[in-house]
Design a protein that fits this description.
By secondary structure, the protein is mainly alpha-helical. The chain has 21 helices and ten strands. The chain has helices at 9-16, 23-26, 36-39, 43-51, 74-79, 99-105, 113-140, 148-170, 191-205, 226-238, 240-243, 270-283, 323-327, 330-335, 348-354, 365-368, 439-452, 458-468, 477-487, 494-500, 529-534; strands spanning 85-86, 260-263, 266-269, 306-310, 345-346, 369-370, 372-373, 391-392, 413-414, 434-438. The strands form five sheets. It has a two-stranded antiparallel ribbon with strand order 1-5. It has a two-stranded antiparallel sheet with strand order 2-3. A two-stranded antiparallel sheet has the order 4-10. Helix 10 packs parallel to helix 17 (439-452) and helix 17 (439-452) runs antiparallel to helix 19 (477-487).
Length: 545
């Protein structure tokens, strides 16, 4: 699938002004847009401008844009707010006005630029999807092409996925289903209502979508297909206790055994629902790759495990992947012919979960992290500018390591994706597709759901551990939370996992619990202060002022 530039720039502008007090902004006639009569004149035009163009937004090349790959957006909010990863202050590097420390310490405040930019990005895609839905429906009034129901289903799935991220990050959000809403209709919905809408949309569109594997090259490469939707439905059911809780600060959470979904005309509880959708994905031919690393190879499109990815190609796309670039020491990256920013590292807690520096270290540690002495691609030791050997010191990491002997070398660094020595843009534009959803998660979701439903989840956990040669463990909630950190390190799931397990607000290494945080208020981010200022109908999430 080729990347196409968004034609209706004004829709993005509408998103920024969505919560403005003036209706006139929402109805402004664009002067630089292509006339809609031409943009949607034929079926190919409709596909190009109402469906394909939306995928320009899944990845990104600037801050807060894209679901992964860029900084200060969805991925960073889900990663650097947890016990998995930290961006330590290193002298004059990585302080950035206290932004990175604030994420780790949960001191982000209500006027955080990155949180607002993430809100705007997610709603931009919602509004673009609304416009596309309206254009497809209008086209259907005068045309009866058999492709149209699938086009409409794909865009509805896209919108539902973006509402999933909004609901996960912000809790109570406006459910806007028009590209030109009246301001009186822009009000917050309860979290459960947004959750119910997402589930309903995904269940309705799933049968209309192809079963093709989205991660593999072909007509559906990078697109939302039925297995992608099933993955989202499993993830929604797995987190149903969180997402159906309209007051996450009262210490009371619904019981997944008493939350029911209708699946194929049957009423099944949340945990049974997870199993149903996981089994459907299995039936579609997904399986674990023989080698863990294959999923993150330079050319990883053939993976039989990856379910949804962000396509990366140095000539076709402008998406970027900053995470390797910003983690490796300058000289480490230089030894590969690339650039680095010497930043992100594993936390002390992550090291302990992996069993680093013990005889029982998990085999995935070396697949996910650089630690100790590092070497170039020819096996030569990499050295610092003064000639000393470059050695990472994982245990020396802290929130601020300025003016310490380990200021530039503390922390285990990201290794997960294979090195593309031909990458451009300082190594940020590489060929490795960015992995969003994969089958190992399906197995661990199923294992967890079975355990929570009073069943045995050992078999699914064993598959994941056997693949990497890890010793057998029983499937318990404790072992599964640890397993998810080890299996999905650097993949952006840790915040959601910690919240589901009731562990997000606890104190951990270098992070004390905030005053009143035990009530769970930081499990959602604040509605951005500027958004509240522009629309007085919206109310701040509890705990923020």
């Amino acid at each position: 699938m080729k990347k196409y530039r968004i034609l209706y720039i004004w829709i993005a502008v509408c998103c920024f002004l969505l919560f403005s007090a003036c209706d006139g902004f929402l109805k402004e006639d664009p002067r630089d847009g292509i006339d809609s009569g031409n943009a949607y004149r034929t079926l190919p035009d409709l596909y190009l401008n109402a469906v394909a163009s939306l995928y320009n937004n899944i990845g990104g090349f600037s801050d807060s844009q894209g679901l992964q790959g860029t900084g200060r957006g969805v991925y960073d909010l889900n990663t650097f707010t947890t016990d998995e990863a930290i961006m330590p202050t290193r002298g004059g590097d990585w302080y950035d006005g206290g932004f990175w420390q604030g994420l780790y310490l949960h001191q982000w405040g209500v006027n955080n630029d990155a949180i607002q930019a993430t809100w705007e990005y997610l709603y931009k895609v919602v509004m673009l999807s609304n416009e596309s839905i309206e254009q497809i429906q209008k086209f259907q009034e005068t045309h009866s092409y058999p492709e149209l129901p699938a086009y409409l289903a794909e865009v509805r799935a896209m919108r539902a996925m973006y509402y999933y991220y909004l609901m996960d990050l912000f809790g109570r959000v406006p459910l806007v289903l028009s590209s030109s809403p009246s301001m009186k209709d822009v009000v917050q919905s309860e979290r459960k209502d947004v959750f119910d809408f997402i589930v309903r949309e995904l269940q309705e569109v799933a049968p209309l979508l192809t079963e093709n594997h989205s991660n593999q090259s072909g007509d559906y490469y990078g697109r939302i297909t039925r297995p992608v939707v099933y993955f989202l439905l499993a993830k929604l059911a797995l987190n149903a206790e969180v997402y159906t809780d309209n007051d996450w600060t009262d210490g009371v959470r619904p019981d997944g055994r008493n939350i029911y979904f209708t699946v194929d005309g049957r009423q099944v509880n949340a945990w049974q629902t997870v199993v149903v959708y996981c089994d459907r994905i299995t039936a579609m031919g997904y399986r674990l790759e023989g080698q863990y690393e294959t999923n993150f190879a330079v050319f990883n499109e053939p993976s039989v495990e990856n379910i949804f990815t962000i396509p990366m190609n140095k000539t076709l796309y402008t998406n970027q992947m900053q995470y390797l670039f910003r983690s490796r020491h300058y000289n480490h990256a230089k030894a590969y012919g690339l650039s680095g920013e010497n930043g992100s590292s594993a936390t002390i807690d992550a090291l302990r979960v992996f069993g680093y520096d013990t005889e029982e270290v998990d085999p995935r540690f070396d697949k996910c992290y650089f630690a100790g002495v590092v070497y170039d691609l020819k096996g030569n030791v990499i050295r610092l500018d003064d000639g000393t050997i470059l050695e990472y010191h994982p245990w020396e990491v802290a929130v601020d390591i300025s003016d310490t002997p380990y200021e530039k070398t503390a922390g285990a660094r990201m290794k997960k994706y294979a090195i593309d020595t031909n990458a451009t843009k300082d190594g940020k534009l590489m060929e490795n597709d960015i992995v969003l959803f994969r089958y190992a998660d399906v197995l661990l979701m199923k294992s967890e759901a079975k355990v929570r439903n009073g069943e045995n989840g050992d078999a699914e956990l064993a598959q994941v551990r056997n693949r990497v040669g890890a010793a057998a463990r029983p499937a318990t909630l404790e072992t599964l939370l640890d397993e998810r950190l080890m299996e999905f390190a650097w993949e952006g799931w840790r915040r959601q996992d910690l919240i589901r397990f009731g562990m997000f607000t606890r104190a951990y290494s270098n992070r004390p619990q905030l005053r009143n945080e035990g009530n769970g208020y930081t499990t959602v981010f604040p509605i951005p202060g500027n958004v509240l200022d522009m629309n007085k109908r919206l109310v701040q999430n509890k705990g923020y002022s």
